[in-house]
C-alpha cells in the first residue's frame, strides 16, 4: 500500500471543526488508534491531554496493555473540541478483549447515530473502503496531516489476496504494525458516507472552520 509522503506533522484543526472518525481497538499486541477526518477531506491524528499525546496507543508504552481509560478520556476531549458527525468503530473479535462494551458506552454518551460498530473482518465492506481510500489519496480528494506513526503504518501495510479480485490489509511481520492505516481507512469511509448523506457544513459552538492541508 503506497505511503503518503510526510515532511511535516501539521497541528490539529481548530476546535469546532466538524469531523468524522474511525476507531480500531486492541489489547496487548497491536496498537489502538483514533483517526479523524474533516468535511474538507483532511485526515489527522488527534492529540489529547496535557502532553498532547497522539491517539495511537502502543501497549509497550503502557505496561503491556492498552490503557482503556486513556482512550475514554481522548474521546471525551474530542467530543468537547469537535463536532462529531459519524465514527465507525472496529470492536475487534467477539472475545474477552473486545471493545464492544466501550463502543456501546460511547454511543450512549455521544450519540447512537454517531458511534457505529464497523467490523473490519467483513471483506464485503472493507474491500470497497480500501479501494476508495487508495483512489481518493491518489487523486487528491484525501489529504493528511503528516502523522509519522500513520505514515509508517501505511508503508507497512501489504495487500493480501482474499479472492481473485479482492484483498485485505496485512502485516509483513508481527512487529510491523498497520493499525493506524486500517483506522485511517475506517475514518475515511465514515467521512465519505457522511458526505453522501448531506454532511452539514457547520461548526460546533460557532468556532471558525479554518482547515489545514498540503500544498
TrEMBL record:
The lineage of its organism: Bacteria, Bacillati, Actinomycetota, Actinomycetes, Propionibacteriales. It comes from the Bacteria. This is Phage terminase, large subunit. Residues 1-27 are annotated as: Disordered.
Amino acid at each position: 500500500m503506497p505511503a503518503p509522503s510526510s515532511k511535516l506533522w501539521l497541528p490539529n484543526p481548530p476546535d469546532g471543526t466538524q469531523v468524522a472518525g474511525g476507531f480500531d481497538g486492541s489489547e496487548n499486541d497491536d496498537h489502538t488508534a483514533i483517526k479523524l477526518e474533516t468535511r474538507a477531506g483532511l485526515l489527522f491524528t488527534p492529540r489529547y491531554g496535557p502532553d498532547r499525546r497522539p491517539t495511537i496507543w502502543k501497549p509497550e508504552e503502557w505496561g503491556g496493555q492498552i490503557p482503556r481509560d486513556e482512550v475514554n478520556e481522548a474521546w471525551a476531549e474530542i467530543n468537547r473540541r469537535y463536532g462529531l458527525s459519524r465514527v465507525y468503530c472496529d470492536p475487534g473479535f467477539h472475545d474477552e478483549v473486545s471493545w464492544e462494551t466501550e463502543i456501546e458506552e460511547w454511543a450512549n454518551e455521544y450519540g447512537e447515530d454517531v458511534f457505529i460498530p464497523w467490523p473490519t473482518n467483513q471483506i464485503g465492506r472493507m474491500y470497497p473502503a480500501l479501494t476508495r481510500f487508495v483512489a481518493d489519496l491518489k487523486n487528491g480528494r484525501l489529504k493528511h496531516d503528516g502523522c509519522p506513526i500513520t505514515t509508517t503504518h501505511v508503508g507497512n501495510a501489504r495487500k493480501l489476496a482474499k479472492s481473485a479480485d479482492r484483498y485485505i490489509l496485512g502485516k509483513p511481520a508481527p512487529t510491523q504494525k498497520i493499525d493506524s492505516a486500517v483506522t485511517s481507512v475506517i475514518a475515511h469511509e465514515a467521512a465519505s458516507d457522511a458526505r453522501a448523506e448531506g454532511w452539514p457544513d457547520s461548526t460546533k459552538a460557532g468556532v471558525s472552520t479554518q482547515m489545514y492541508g498540503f500544498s
